[in-house]
Amino acid sequence: MTAVAPVDQLPLIDTLPVEYLFDMHVDLAPAQPITTPVGARMTFITTGGVIDGPRLQGEVLPGGGDWLLVGGDGAGRVDVRATLKTHDGVLIHYEARGIIKVPADGLQRLAAGEVLPFDQTYVRTTPTFETADERYAWLSELVAVGYNVLSPNHIDYRIYRVL
């Protein structure tokens, strides 16, 4: 008799159930490009931002950033850290990892002031949150995904909780 593997009990799905949490609009200082043996690094420092949505409102404080590494395959590996401040004064540590793929002319288009449309890029992140404040502790206990739009010296996030 063959035992049924526990994974066989999981339903097959073709879409993930999610809950929309908030949008995050982040202003960035111009990139600091650094050529390294492991790829091109681009450091973007956060100058501020706004958080707005049904589950979270507030601001992105200056001083965080994205330490992006673009490898030989052309994919950017996201390494974001920032401090969020809620509308009622709670500080939340924010981190995100992810992947950025832009069209071959994407960096030139950004430098020319163009917004790269969502359907022409692949910018996906997996944010995590840390806070001990009981009003927002739920953020520390979820899996989130972010869909992003790139603009010159700016990035927009739409953040969802995976149910």
CATH architectural category: Beta Barrel
How many beta strands in the DSSP annotation? 10
Measure the end-to-end span.
35 Å
Number of domains: 1
CATH topology: Porin
Shape: globular
Helix content: under 10%
Which stretches of 5+ consecutive residues score pLDDT under 50?
Answer: none
What's the multimeric state? single chain
Question: Helical segment tally?
Answer: 1
DSSP strand (E) fraction? Answer: over 45%
Rounded average pLDDT: 94
What series of H and E elements makes up the topology? EEEEEEEHEEE
**Structural class, from helix and strand content?**
mainly beta
Structure description:
This protein is mainly beta and 163 residues long. It has one domain (16-162): Porin, CATH 2.40.160.20. Helices cover 4% and strands 53% of the residues. It is built from one helix and ten strands, in the order E-E-E-E-E-E-E-H-E-E-E. Strands 1, 2, 3, 4, 5, 6, 7, 8, 9 and 10 form a ten-stranded antiparallel beta sheet that branches. Strand 5 and strand 6 (76-86) form a beta hairpin. It is globular, with a radius of gyration of 18 Å. The two termini are 35 Å apart. The mean pLDDT is 94. Belongs to the UPF0311 family. Pfam families: DUF3237 (PF11578). This is UPF0311 protein MycrhN_5400.
Write a compact overview of the structure shown.
The protein is mainly beta and 163 residues long.
Write the SSE topology.
Elements: E1 18-28, E2 32-36, E3 39-52, E4 58-60, E5 65-70, E6 76-86, E7 91-101, H1 106-111, E8 122-130, E9 144-151, E10 154-162
Antiparallel strand pairs: 1-3, 1-10, 2-3, 3-4, 3-5, 4-6, 5-6, 6-7, 7-8, 8-9, 9-10
